[in-house]
Design a protein that fits this description.
Number of helices: 8
Number of domains: 1
Shape: globular
Largest sheet: none
Distance between the termini: 11 Å
Structural class: mainly alpha
Order of helices and strands: HHHHHHHH
Number of strands: 0
Helix content: over 70%
CATH class: Mainly Alpha
Amino acid sequence: MSESESDGCGCTGDAKRAERDPAYARALWIVVILNLGFGLLEIVGGFVADSQALKADALDFIGDGSITLVGLLALGWTAHARARIALTQGLFLGALGVGVIAFAAWRAMNAVAPEAELMGGIGVVALLVNVGAAFVLARFREGDANVRAIWLFSRNDALANVAVIVAAGLVAWAQSAWPDLIVAGVIALLFLHSAYEIVRSALAERRTQPRLA
């Protein structure tokens, strides 16, 4: 891939260095454990608090952990195979976004205000987990589509957690379910935006990388 093509897709880092760097593999394992472990806890909390935003965020955690695990396994693969994995990651993220929007719309017909205090508390813990994951991955945020995808997942999680905390405050103030549903929709839009960026980068790399490179 030429330098101009790399710049166009935002994939300007040295992916080969990341592939050979044991620190990158360790960082991915940390992120996998944080995402999968907390995602399972948060989805339980989402049902207890009856919060659609928490459920959406929990799906994001679980999805990110699973996809990061695939990214970890793909480190030794060819560039073309890595681009194909990144494309799958982007499509999966887009599917999550569409699903969250559809479920939030369905719940809007029977909206019930969630437990604001529990929602906010879980949101704060989730933010701390995601800030930790983003910090671990920060040095690897530039690379090929696969490396960039993993960084975007962690960054978006942290942004979504801030939105959940704000929504919890609005739910407590207004005694309404709408802030919770709106934030669930915002999280879904983050899914869709990142999905577009990842798919675009992966397709560009597939066009420029030979199958055996």
